[in-house]
Specification:
Elements (H helix, E strand, L loop, with lengths): L8 E5 L3 H11 L3 E7 L6 E9 L2 E6 L18 E4 L3 H10 L4 E7 L5 E6 L5 E6 L5 H9 L2
Parallel strand pairs: 1-4, 5-8
Antiparallel strand pairs: 2-3, 3-4, 6-7, 7-8
Length: about 140
């Protein structure tokens, strides 16, 4: 029987593609992999950025309406990216001009987390899973 094996990509609509590409490639370190043209018009449509482990971020062109995050709204809240060393990742991001809304701290689940936003205000959590966390234990239990 088939099963879901992971996330294939996150999809983000960018207001300014150049700013978003700069942020996701230079600041976060994703690799621009390819672009898909609109099949009807031939105009640029989607940039694919490789995150790692077979996962991508899709950046769509022409975002026209802001969708600011508000705690009370239902639906999408944030993207969480796994990191192997939160302190070194945070330092690298700062050197590239990234501005954190929350510096690395240990959360109530014992994992390390830090927060940054992209040029369109999308909240991005950087998370380093530690062995003394419920997520780590759940992975160990479910991967047996």
């Amino acid at each position: 029987m088939g099963k879901i094996t992971g996330f294939a990509h996150i999809a983000i609509t960018a207001k300014d593609m150049d700013k978003s590409l700069d942020f996701y490639t230079r600041v976060l370190g994703f690799k621009k992999s390819f672009e898909i043209k609109n099949p009807k018009t031939g105009a640029p449509w989607i940039n694919y950025l490789y995150i790692g482990n077979g996962q991508f971020a899709e950046l769509f062109y022409n975002g026209a309406t802001d969708n600011p995050w508000k705690e009370e709204l239902r639906g999408f809240n944030h993207v969480s990216l796994l990191v192997d060393d939160i302190h070194s990742v945070a330092e690298r991001i700062k050197k590239e001009g990234g501005v954190f809304t929350s510096e690395p701290v240990q959360g109530c689940d014992n994992n390390w987390q830090a927060w940054i936003t992209d040029p369109d205000g999308i909240r991005i959590e950087l998370m380093q899973i530690v062995e003394d966390s419920p997520q780590y234990r759940a992975v160990q239990q479910n991967e047996r």
